[in-house]
């Protein structure tokens, strides 16, 4: 088994975000399957390996570099071309292509489909993010009618819907880091999440969307957008409600109806099993074994399946038009 090196620009300060925490969670889980370590490449950190130092070693065939930081992938892929590299894809929509020599692990089926189309010759796997067991329904009294986290929320949510709801029910708007998020979710009846506008501005997709699932696990009724990775598990009308649906008044009407009815989610633990640690460890074991087999094969064989480059697509299009022309005008000759 090759050792996994999880490449991150840094692990604190300006790099702190949901994507970083999710990657570090995956790193911790990987340590239960094989040897794994964190390597930084933008800032040096005490007690952690630094990429430029590591690349000075003579033989790195027994390691696999796991890259994940979207905006850095193109540069890292070029820099690490001689080595074994895997792309751990969270969001989709970054403007780069990858060679078939770099396998892809996606955190959502939405992203799986994106890369399945964009890189049809690549080895691709699905490994969802983990929902830890601290996110569970404690069945306690819920004293917050509506809970909203300001980060990633749309202008509509912050400037229209929340003010309208504040006139009719108890709304809590979270604007900073929450130490006990499971506890807060367990106090709320309804959780609002609307990230489509945020990700449209970033020109990439919602990679997974942890918060709505964490809220569901804690027994909240969820009103959410269903963009990107959220579409993996959110099913409006069945396990959630679609937010920003037609009008502010319609949203308010539906949210108040849920609050007044004290509707409780009927999701069983089976629904969350795919995202719990046991399943992820099992999937990781299979994926790591497949990756090791692939990199063994790559040493012996060059890629020989034609790629879907822009030039090849033009040729395929021209050939299709030519064949149609031939069938139409020369079939009776």
In words, what does this structure look like?
The chain has 333 residues and is of the alpha/beta class. The protein has 12 helices and 12 strands. The protein has helices at residues 18-30, 51-54, 73-79, 109-118, 155-166, 181-187, 196-202, 210-217, 248-261, 269-272, 277-300, 310-330, and strands at residues 3-8, 36-40, 49-50, 63-67, 85-89, 104-106, 124-126, 144-149, 171-174, 188-193, 221-224, 241-242. The protein has a 7-stranded parallel β-sheet with strand order 3-2-1-4-5-6-7, sandwiched between helices. It is globular, with a radius of gyration of 23 Å. The protein starts with a strand and ends with a helix. 32% of the residues are buried.
Question: What's the layout of helices and strands?
Answer:
Elements: E1 3-8, H1 18-30, E2 36-40, E3 49-50, H2 51-54, E4 63-67, H3 73-79, E5 85-89, E6 104-106, H4 109-118, E7 124-126, E8 144-149, H5 155-166, E9 171-174, H6 181-187, E10 188-193, H7 196-202, H8 210-217, E11 221-224, E12 241-242, H9 248-261, H10 269-272, H11 277-300, H12 310-330
Parallel strand pairs: 1-2, 1-4, 2-3, 4-5, 5-6, 6-7, 8-9, 8-10, 10-11, 11-12
Helix pairs in contact: 5-9
